[in-house]
Design brief:
Layout lengths: L5 H5 L3 H9 L4 H20 L2 H5 L2 H20 L6 H32 L4 H22 L3 H27 L6
Helix pairs in contact: 3-8, 5-6, 5-8, 6-7, 7-8
Length: 175
Amino acid sequence: MAIPSPHQLAQLPIITCLAALRGIANRSDRLSVTQATHARLASQWRRNPNFVRSNAAQLVDGVHAHFRHCFSALSKENGNGDDTIRRFVAFSNELNLHHAIEDGVWFPRLARFHTELQLELLLLEDDHRAFVALESRIEEGDTLALREFIENLNDHMDREEMITVPFLMDGTGGL
C-alpha cells in the first residue's frame, strides 16, 4: 500500500487524515508523514486571521513551541548527567500539568461538542499516560528513552494541533 502524501492528507477531513496516518505501518514513515502534513496544515492556519484571534496561536506558537524548545535543548546535551535529568524533571512536571488540564477539562469539553473527535482525544490521553511511563526510565538515565520521549512528544503535539486548531479558530474548541 502506498504511503499517502502530506499534500493529499492535508486536504482530507481531519478524522480521515489521522486514520490514514495511523494506517502507515512503518513508524519512521508515519512520524515523517505526520510531521510534513502538520507543517502543511500549520502554513494554512497561519494565513487565517482567526489563527491569531483565537487561542490557536497561543497553543501552537506559545505553549507547544515552549515544550518543543525545552525538550529539544535536552536532546542536544551530551550524556545523561544529573543536570540534564533535573531539567527534564522540571520540564516534564510542567508538561504533566498541561496534560492534566487537557485530560480533565479541555478534551472532555471538545468530546462533548465534537463527538467525532472522541477516539482521537482518547488516543491523545493514551499518549499522556505513555509519557509518564517513559519518565521513570529517563530519570534513571536512559538516554534512548529521552530520545523516544521527545520524538513521541513532537508527534503528539503535531496530532493534537491537527485535531484542535481548526476548532479553536472557528470558536468551537476553546475553554
